[in-house]
Amino acid sequence: MKVIICETRDEMSRKGAEIFAERIKAKADLVIGLATGSTPEGLYAELAKKNAASEIDFSKVRSFNLDEYLGIAPDHDQSYRFFMNQKLFDNINIDKANTRVLDGLAADPAAECAKFEDEIKAAGGVDLQLLGIGSNGHIAFNEPGSPKDSRTRVVDLTESTIKDNSRFFASADEVPKQALSMGNGAILEAKEIVMLANGANKAKAVAAALEGPESEDCPASLLQAHDNVTVVLDAEAAAELQKEY
Length: 245
Ligand code: PGA
Prior knowledge:
The protein is of the alpha/beta class. The chain contains 7 helices and 10 strands.
């Protein structure tokens, strides 16, 4: 894995956005995999700036999001569809018809997951996948113990993820207990992956992912098996790394 250590979160966001901008300039119809949470917000703001400055064009770009809460409507202010519209899609010239977020209200969630994977396949696969990392080492909602070959499916959230995400809800009780999530196996099929992490609460998970054993106990460590991964960190998230990068 290529590791880039930045001093600040802003620098992390800029570096991550540069990678996306380069790839979109090289391939106008790039298929991007997107993530939600606090981590990518700065990267999305950078992409919007570059789009406004006509540096990059999203008109042919297609996107797939990693996950969505189960039982939450797309227009709910904590849904990941709502987040993506607000933080990125409404601020760039992407065609919303080319943006795909799993439907948290699907009548048949398993069928929705299968359809989502078929759509990725029909698009030619994900060219560039953006990831964050949970404080417990999760990627998307693949909690510790999620199989290496897992596909897009309904998953249960762990107590630690519910606690981490309760900051966005009135209380932990309101955080959905399940989600639809791309599996580790589905994520690892992306041709290239960029994982971002910032903040001291990510330092242990980052160290386990990069320097620990490749293990389902830390889903982010499964990225070690992929041959085109760049990890962009701020200084706090890199604080527990032992090796020199
Ligand atoms: P965060 O979440 O960006 O809100 O810290 C990251 C994740 O859980 O993947």
